[in-house]
Amino acid sequence: MTLAPLIDVQTLMALPVRRYRYLDASILLPGQEGDFEAAFHELAFPQADRFRINEICEKADSLPHMVPGAAVFASFMTALGITRETGIVFYDQKGSIGACRAHWMASLFGHDAVHVLDGGLAAVTRAGLNPQEIPEPAPKAQEPYLTRTRYALLAGKGDVLDALDDPDVVILDARSHARFHAEVPEPRPNTRGGHMPGASSLPYSDLIDEQGCFVQPDVLLARLQSLGAGQRRVITSCGSGLTAATVTMALRVAGLAPGRIYDGSWAEWGSDPATPIEAS
Prior knowledge:
The chain has ten helices and ten strands. The chain is of the alpha/beta class.
């Protein structure tokens, strides 16, 4: 059974038994409130595990949830009983912000059979289904996880600096229009407002509907192409590398190349007085 990167509830319910593992990647954005740990223990998919993005990261870096090295990622996946051959369905309690970031991380380290549930667990309950009735998950593996890093999915500050003078690259910023144009303060202290010179504003909220599901592929394609995606190589950015992954998933769903995520995103760029910014 070949699955697309983004799957709906109907596809989830039709998964073959004992082939996929379910990982809850729910995470809070700055300013949001909630307790996803408690929610996970109250309602989850059968034998699901938590994929805690704020733990599976480079702890030595002062920037938030920076992607870890391959050995760190492999150790977490091994502890979860997952090999690179295990099918994975990432989901959020609602929506897919954490799941899209987790999907990008797994793809970065060479995982192919990895998918995001569109709309998250909320989409399952909204359909009147019991999350415990989805297909039985795969058993936990007893062998180590082996990575195969795809560096072409990752961008650093130097790549973004180079892109500023490259007409064949477009930077898509997933933050709100207000943050992009420095009309509101940044949520992180000591961070300037504005955007990278020449970047295009594409709030992640424009890509999903009021229920947290992605809008239709043709709508995504038109929106992305209007900003140059498809004709130019893409670097996605946001506040800290989370919602940039929502844009990356939108690119995949639209049938375009996923581009690269600038992992440091505005948390790094906006806090560095040496990097150029625009506010209009």
